[in-house]
Design goal:
The structure is a homotetramer of 153-residue chains. With 153 residues, chain A is of the alpha+beta class. Chain A contains 3 helices and 6 strands; from the N terminus they run H-H-E-E-H-E-E-E-E. The relative contact order of chain A is 0.20.
């Protein structure tokens, strides 16, 4: 479904990659951007012991971080030149312990708008047990920095 | 208001401290537990450049991490011996850029329950501009591990 | 995907219909249950002027009501005999004005659990302009009443 | 705290009352606006059997409706002339059965903004058992209709 969205600029992927590269926390985590399409972004995070909670699984903070970033950048792919994206808010349900060797967050645009873009995301764990969806997110993003007139949501 | 809650065990603060100490991501972030009372927990995070987003402010992931932990541990203070706490879900509104020298997350119990405990949290930034509330959270926590039939969510 | 869920009792649809019939507010709204499958429930609401907000569109309260009920009953289809379902919490994003002749809420189970079931829902408006998704929900449901020790949230 | 907010127009209460009066669903429910201050609105709903769920308590839809309206109108009190308010999204935690003779929803502004205003709300039940907080909400509102230039959140 996300494939149906039309980007407003040809360099949407480049803009996402440049912004992602400036997020130092993503480097600290070891997260990488693995897919950027109109309205769809995937971020991969290999397991690292430094990112764990009290039971040795990936901490919800890391799960949330990649889900939020994937959602925000999915929104950014559909925004005009000069725009930046901020998270207004998000909700995440943690569905299962984040147990695995690697994690993939997929963010997708549910509804783009001139001001507000609503996104959904999922995080999947890959490990000896196969694939498990460990979290699902519903997020509200806002476009800033490229507005010229009385935009409406 | 939180002061009215009654802990179920005298060592509630010790249990929170032990669990917090096992969260390796909190050490990676440099977060510290600064207050543990019945139904109320505060976590402090000094600014660090490794934790920033693309504009040099604290990344929402770090803001969310300390808010979620403060809420979860606030819930744990009211749980019985042997119990552990998991985040079922949370929603966070990011109210202002997380610009500051240090950040304080305060989590408090809104309603404790035998299975589900609802918590609210805020994150305040302290800097040259004074204090700013940068985020507010509403979270659902679940008690696991101390239940007779080992029921899990 | 929802089709993969296995109901725990053969009479799951009957239980949903009986519970729905007792919700007097659904009768007041004129909402009807139109589809009950394992992990999937649809509720239809024809437009009525008594249910409008200040611009003459369906009020968010009515949109939310059918989305929440569809999610809750989707969860109930997978619960054991004697169980009842309560909404712990939900978040809804209102994506577009609820303008239409009729509205369909579809709730589906994202992850069933012994205590907590996570559901997602959408509300679609049908009108002269075709179909529009007007809202999306992410909800946390809890099973009560069929548990050995009578645990309640 | 809400008392500190400054309204942008002297007739803020009148604008809220006029908008509320146009919401036909509030009349259907029997809800009334009982308090309008800068950044703070209260809506009262007497119990009515037509508004119940399957156990005879007030349906979550009615609880949510008054909480959302109180939050939205709290936001509107701080908006400029000509502005209208829409709910972008909200999350509500249902804390206890909505059992009582009357219910009061209080919405308050957490952070006002030129585009986005974040609000929190609570619903209290009044009955033979005294007062019970039955729900708490965190909501994101957007200003529409009175924008003249490149507003930012």
């Amino acid at each position: 479904m996300a494939a149906a969205w039309q980007p407003k600029t040809p360099d949407y992927a480049q803009r996402v990659r440049e912004s992602f590269a400036k997020q130092r926390i993503m480097a600290l985590f070891g997260a990488e951007l693995v897919r950027v399409e109109p309205g769809l972004v995937e971020i991969r995070l290999p397991f690292r012991p430094e990112l764990t909670q009290q039971h040795g699984y990936l901490h919800a903070a890391a799960v949330t971080a990649i889900a939020d970033s994937a959602c925000g950048y999915a929104a950014l792919t559909l925004m005009p030149a000069g725009a930046e994206v901020l998270s207004v808010e998000f909700k995440i349900n943690l569905l299962a312990p984040a147990k695995g060797d690697a994690f993939l967050a997929r963010g997708r645009v549910v509804r783009p708008g001139r001001t507000i873009t609503v996104c959904a995301g999922d995080v999947v764990a890959y490990g000896a047990d196969g694939e498990t969806v460990v979290a699902t997110m519903l997020a509200t993003m806002i476009q800033v920095g490229a507005r010229t007139e009385g935009d409406r949501a």
